[in-house]
Amino acid sequence: MKVLALEDNKELAKSIHDFLTLAGYVCELAETVEEAKHKLLSFTYDCILLDIMLPDGNGLDLLKFIKAEKIQSGVLIISAKEALDDKIKGLEGGADDYLTKPFHLSELHARLRAIYRRKSLNGNNSNMITFNEISLNTDTFEAFINNQLLDITRKEFELLMYFMVNKNRVLSRQAIAAHLWGDYTDNLANLDFVYQHVKNLRRKISLINGIDYIDTIYGLGYRFKSTETEI
Predict the structure, then answer these.
(1) Residue range 58-63: average pLDDT?
(2) Are 117 and 90 in contact (CB under 8 A)?
(3) Which residue, among 194, 210, 191, has the nearest Cα to 202 in the 3D structure?
(4) What is the pTM for the complete model shown?
(5) So what's the pLDDT on residue 141?
(6) Structure confidence by residue, pLDDT tens digits, 17-59
(7) Which residues pair with residue 48 across a beta bridge?
(8) In sequence order, which residues have a C-beta less than 8 Å from that of residue 73 and are 6 or more positions away?
(9) Which domains does the chain possess?
(10) Of 24, 46, 86, 147, which is least packed with CB atoms within 10 Å of its CB?
């Protein structure tokens, strides 16, 4: 999962960043509305943590910007304000959930996972993502081919999940790199590490006689086919 945390409290922002990074997610930070707008127009995120009170504006106004720009990220509002009207405005404005400070980071993590399942996994509240003979356990980060455990790294698991939730879409190497390693990859001239990860994933799937659904679209990137024979 790739998360943008909009939070001007440096200590809290660092705690959120460190916790989510330790959990294996890519977490980018923004301190102001303008910085967040720039990131949202330049990169894609699965979820956005949106503080209401910010140095240069109101998080609810940024929520309007998110909806006006048709940004599909899930939105979790986090704020110290307990006023009911702020919560109602946020939810009616399109936010997916609301969390009041102070909160436990484990609860934040659980809320993010729930939003991601609803938004990216078509409302599937299960910890399992399945496609034909492939099963992914999003709690344990284990992958199975025909119920046989696939020996892959955490990044390879995330890569396979990214492919599966974007079936039949052509994903560029830049998009894959930014989603799995963060926005700093946008300035890298060489993205061969993406090719290597895809190659390793395909090899490991083949080792246990799994079907290779990943197509290389030369000059563009990769596509995970919804059927074995689709071109």
Answers:
(1) 87
(2) no
(3) 210
(4) 0.67
(5) 86
(6) 999 988 888 899 999 999 999 999 988 898 999 988 888 888 8
(7) 4, 75
(8) 4, 40, 44, 45, 46, 47, 48, 66, 119
(9) 2-120 (3.40.50.2300), 128-224 (1.10.10.10)
(10) 147
- Answer whether the bond into residue 102 is a cis peptide, omega within 30°: yes
Residue carrying structure tokens 């079907």: 211
d(CA 154, CA 210): 19
CA 52 to chain centre: 22
Q: How crowded is the C-beta side of 165, counted as CA atoms within 13 Å?
A: 22
* Residue 214 bridge partners (DSSP): 224
Please state, in angstroms and as integers, the Cα–Cα distance from residue 7 to each residue in 35, 154, 172, 181, following that order: 11, 27, 30, 21
**DSSP character at residue 186:** G
What are the structure tokens assigned to 16, written together? 């959120």
Q: Which amino acid is at 165?
A: V
pLDDT of res. 198: 94
- Kindly give the residue spans of alpha helices, DSSP state H, lying in 69-172: 84-92, 105-120, 154-164
CA distances from 68 to 39, 64, 76, 94, 227 (A): 15, 6, 17, 11, 35
> What's at 229, amino acid-wise?
T
